[in-house]
Amino acid sequence: MKNRTPPANRIPRLLLGALSTLAALTAALALWTARAEAFAHYAPECGQENLLPLLRKENLTEADYVLIFRQTGLARPGVEQLYASGRQQELLGLQQRFFADAEVECSHSNLFTRSERLTNFRSLVYDVDFLPTVQDGDILITFNGHVFGWRSGHAAIVVDAEDRLTLEAIMPGCDSGICGLESWEEYPGFALLRLKGASAQEREQIAAYAREHLTGLPYSLTAFTESSGAGAGTMPLSGTQCAHLVWYAYHQFGYDLDSNGGFVVTPEDLYHSSLLELVQIYGLPPNS
C-alpha cells in the first residue's frame, strides 16, 4: 500500500494559505471597526439659529418644536417640561453643547469590546444640566460601545432622577448596580426615552421595582433564556445584561419594550420600541 503522506513542500503552502486567510480576516475586521468608529458622534448638519425669539413665546407651534429639536436635541416632551417650569433659558446652553465640536477617544473595555468617550466633555457643560428633563423610570441608550463593527451599545434605567442615579448592568464580571448619571455626560451620543402615556407615578413604581429587585445581579449574556417562553419575566433572575435589565423591569408592569420580539433584547430593540417616546438626543442622527 502506498504511503499517502503529503509531500513536504505542501505543508508550507497550506500554512501560507492559512496565514493569508488570517491576515485578510484581520484586515477586514480592522476596516469594519474603523468604519464603526467614524460614526461615534453625529454633528448637526444645519447651522445654529437664534432661539431667543422662541424663549419669549407663550405658545409654540409645531414648527417651533421641530426647530428646537434640531437645534438642541430636546424633543417636544422635554421642551414642554422646560417651558412648564419656566426653565426655557436652558435651551441656549443645550444648543451650545449640541453644536460644540466633540473630541472622541476609543479604547478597549475588554478583549473584544471597545467604547468611546468624550475627552472634552467637561468643557461642553456650559453651566447647564446636560439632561435637564430626566425623570424616574426614563431609559438611557447609547451606541458608543461596539464589538468590531457591530455597535452593541448600552442601556440604563433612571431610578432616582433627583439624586441623579441609574441602575445598570455594565459588563461581564460586574454585578448590576447603582451608577451616577454624570457618567452619561461622557458619551459622544445618547438618547433619553420615556414610556408613552404612563403617569409619573407608574414610572416611579417601575424605577423602584428595578432598584429593589434587579440590583446585584451577575452580568449574563444568556439572561434571555430565563425570560422567554412560558412564564417569561416572572421567575427570579440569576443574571442580566444592560438592555435585558431595562426590559425586565418594564415587563413586570405589562410593557414589552422589545421592538422586534427576538430571543435577545438589545439597546437597539429598546431604542425602536413603539411604546417609548424620545425626550432628548445628543450626538445621534435626528431621524435614526
Strand order of the largest sheet: 7-6-5-3-8-9
Taking all residues together, what is the mean pLDDT?
86
The biggest beta sheet reads: 6 strands, antiparallel
Alpha-beta classification: alpha+beta
Beta-strand level of the residues, as a percent range? 15-25%
**Which bin fits the share of residues in helices?**
25-40%
Tell me the distance between the termini: 67 Å
Could you walk me through the main structural features you see in this protein, from its secondary elements to its overall organization?
This protein is an alpha+beta fold and 288 residues long. Helix content is 32%, strand content 16%. A hairpin with a 4-residue loop joins strand 1 (104-108) and strand 2 (113-118). The chain has helices at 10-37, 52-55, 62-72, 76-84, 90-99, 200-213, 242-251, 267-271; strands at 104-108, 113-118, 139-142, 145-147, 154-160, 165-168, 177-180, 190-195, 276-282. The mean pLDDT is 86. 33% of the residues are buried. Strands 7-6-5-3-8-9 form a six-stranded antiparallel β-sheet. The protein has a three-stranded antiparallel β-sheet with strand order 1-2-4, covered by helices on one side. It contains eight helices and nine strands.
Sum up the structure in keywords.
288 residues, alpha+beta, three-stranded antiparallel beta sheet, 9 strands, globular
The gist of it:
With about 290 residues, the protein is an alpha+beta fold. The protein contains eight helices and nine strands.
Task: Write the topology of this structure.
Blueprint: H1 10-37, H2 52-55, H3 62-72, H4 76-84, H5 90-99, E1 104-108, E2 113-118, E3 139-142, E4 145-147, E5 154-160, E6 165-168, E7 177-180, E8 190-195, H6 200-213, H7 242-251, H8 267-271, E9 276-282
Antiparallel strand pairs: 1-2, 2-4, 3-5, 3-8, 5-6, 6-7, 8-9
